[in-house]
């Protein structure tokens, strides 16, 4: 008779699985908690201590870490020396290992990571040792041992056992899954316990959430993963209320829109196309913010992604319904707004009902060929404002500069933003030269019918990086720019300042750039 070792923290389905094993004349060995529930359900089994001759000790910290257990798992069946040693030390063969690990992830998501490095003892006790060792041992010896770490595989195992012996290909698949499982588990623990920003070795816990229709293009396969930290107010944790499944590009654009719109406290709207904003605005209400964001570049907004930082009401929904939109994300929708928007079959509606708050010390990663880049997330806005020109910005100019600077952080470099009040009127993005970005922004502005009184809402410019030459200032003056915000720091700053003074343009430096590649 074959023997299965069952030691599960998650008892889901284990009784039915064990009963099926018994029907197939398998012996069952179980750890204390698992043995208890099996016996309560009339499933015959032996406890680990009966095999090892040693009781569970240290409050259950040590129960399966014993040669009588690991010898029975790791012995190579067709190795004569191994067989002789098993006989000599009276070690029973174990043919299947079924383990679910202590719920470290669930406990971790309940307990915020302490800044003082004082780790909660409950979390420590939920770091599994024996279970991980069992899975790794069985997975290593997969040719002789079936390893199971996923309750969803119980039915697959029983089906195979009933028809034919479990084949080596399936055993290998199960072993690979077990190693992925323990690697993910250990990466959660190491990530939580690590306080060094860029450690010499790094494991990022990634968990597949869904398969996507395709990647950036239809010939590319794609999937969505989370980093194992659940419950955070992010795009991937948003609840989809309506519409077809999200695509790879949808997620990229939703992330860009969501991060931009949460730079603002007032009602704000961001319209994103191909990972760049084609319009952004903040206003006294959501509807007005949307209309102002849309008017910046209504042509590009067609088929775009829209994000709001406040609830969408029916008046805003009616306006949005006039435009073809791929996705909308907002903290909330009124019942009436949902009724309007859901009339469009394919529009994706997402709700992230927790306000976005960037973690101060968060790290972002970007994959590259056979490697990965890591950096602090760009979650700062100003270092120290320096007035560079003779004329300082007037109050309305200063407000507009503050708004435009926030937007510039979310536009691909080289970025130039033209704004009036809390509204973009022209955006130039991703060009190889800054002057070309300005020309594109100015060209976009020609088509904006913003209806703003230019005496009350002066035209301002924000640049994500410094001016290597005075040409941007000179061109900005030609289109009526009265104030500029830029990081400063060029060796030719004086030339740009001189050009600004000659044109009576106020210029401030932030001391901080916002390249976005």
Summarize the structure.
This protein is an alpha/beta fold. The chain is built from 19 helices and 21 strands.
Secondary structure topology:
Layout: E1 3-8, H1 14-23, E2 27-30, H2 32-40, E3 46-47, H3 48-52, H4 67-74, H5 80-88, E4 96-100, H6 104-108, H7 121-125, H8 130-140, E5 146-148, H9 154-163, H10 168-193, E6 207-212, E7 222-226, E8 239-242, H11 248-261, E9 268-273, E10 276-282, H12 286-296, H13 298-301, E11 304-308, H14 314-320, E12 325-330, H15 335-341, E13 348-351, E14 363-368, E15 371-376, E16 386-387, H16 395-408, E17 416-420, E18 423-428, H17 434-445, E19 459-463, H18 471-478, E20 483-486, H19 493-502, E21 506-509
Protein architecture, described:
It is a single chain. Helices cover 36% and strands 20% of the residues. By secondary structure, it is of the alpha/beta class. The chain folds into 3 domains: 3-193, Methylglyoxal synthase-like domain (Rossmann fold, 3-Layer(aba) Sandwich), CATH 3.40.50; 237-351, AICAR transformylase, duplication domain (Cytidine Deaminase, domain 2, 3-Layer(aba) Sandwich), CATH 3.40.140.20; 386-509, Cytidine Deaminase, domain 2. Helix 14 (314-320) runs parallel beside helix 15. The longest helix is centred in the middle third of the chain and has 26 residues, at 168-193. It starts with a strand and ends in an 8-residue tail after the last strand.
